[in-house]
């Protein structure tokens, strides 16, 4: 029987593993940590629960798809409900307007500023929707196997039609006059660790997706979705091996043929790599195998562009705060300076941050009368700033705490902290092997996107595939779920299907 190894039980690894196991192959999933989910993990103190990484659920249909594609009803695995208004925004030191995905509320917000801004907003929505439609069909939901998949007149024309050469911010300025309204549509590029001031304008699809498809909450927090993926994989007959770090991939004649665990080789017909691409290249794919071209040698990998990282503070509180929304965003007074500092490797004096308060809608995150609060502040990745220590962490978190107290109206917060844990980029690096602690992986610049991002099928060896945030199509849970699907479909194109299986899942 054909045996496949998937390395890493992050969202990308779980998604690929489900597609492959459902297609009838035997899949072994290896994870170095003691839990599945990767960054979609959970801190469980016994009293408080925290999602470690992702919290904002967008594109709910993609969350459902891996279940329906594998033949079951997603409703039997996890529960989602729509949040609206989905985020409270704090600008210039005080609460601004809530963000809503209801057209009547949106009209009130934009018309409240000016009818030109409302008209501009509708034009933005229509323009960006068309670009999204193009991007989805020609770039996101397909993998690039050979150069001809990209370097052909049709795809190049579509790339041109994406009009992605200006920055998100410049592009928004064409539609809107109000700086505050522009900010409300610009900050979302930070969800994938890229600046709105110099990231490609195609990422203006992120606020559009929030508005048109809504923002959702998964009951039990994000980790319950990772558990749902785990359950589906095991039901299909897949095997998960926790606490098992892979030391390297083995090759014979440029064909991946196994993995090394604790000095012992285990034979596999195919390896799907979910560990972060730059880390995998530098640590798991041996130079001697002759499968790394110059562009993937260690010094070139280290020269690649890495996304912005973050510090996350997890607080168990012995009280509740009714005025907080589930998602809350505080923007620095000078947002441009703040983002510029992040890109220059400076820890901001006046940090922007995002506060996630699931206890607002979910009693399972803390005991009665208590609550759990997660605060994420974007910070430089470790390539640009490598000076985290106890004092630095304390000083930076104090800056966040003082603004939480004064601007989010939590003056007594420090008196109610019952549990505290902080993750810096160093923790994201050591816990998940994320290169430079860049929580969103390789930065999605034009030269690291689409055809130029690491492919799902590795071009320089056979039987090796990649699924994950630093591979195609990119970071963010729905996009990484798609990466797992694309990698699995590339495997299915190359391997004979198991006896008795039809092609339907693989096409
Ligand atoms: C703080 C934070 C907030 C975020 N917020 C959002 C959000 O709100 N919405 C959203 O959609 N996305 C969000 N994201 C992004 C999203 O979480 C990621 O893009 C996605 O989870 C990445 O999945 P992955 O499978 O690529 O990687 P990972 O989750 O990193 O999985 C890779 C796995 O490989 C394992 N591994 C590594 N090396 C080895 C080895 N040698 N042997 C075995 N196993 C190995 C790791 O332990 C890990 O489990 C956030 C991320 C972070 C960190």
Concise summary:
The protein is α/β, with parallel strands linked by helices and 507 residues long. Helix content is 34%, strand content 19%. The chain has three domains: 230 residues, 3-Layer(bba) Sandwich (FAD/NAD(P)-binding domain); 112 residues, no CATH class; 126 residues.
Distance between the termini: 22 Å
Q: What are the segments in which pLDDT stays under 50 over at least 5 consecutive residues?
A: none
CATH level-two architecture of the largest domain: 3-Layer(bba) Sandwich
Largest sheet: 7 strands, mixed
The domain count comes to 3
pLDDT average, as an integer? 94
CATH superfamily of the largest domain: FAD/NAD(P)-binding domain
Report the total helices.
Answer: 15
Count of β-strands = 19
Spatial order of strands in the largest sheet: 7-6-15-16-17-14-18
Looking at the structure, what is the overall shape? globular
Range of strand content: 15-25%
- What ligands does this structure carry? flavin-adenine dinucleotide
Computed structural class: alpha/beta
What integer value in Å does the Rg equal? 22 Å
Percent in helix: 25-40%
Q: Examine the coordinates and then state which fold CATH places here, giving the name of the CATH topology of the largest domain.
A: FAD/NAD(P)-binding domain
CATH class of the largest domain: Alpha Beta
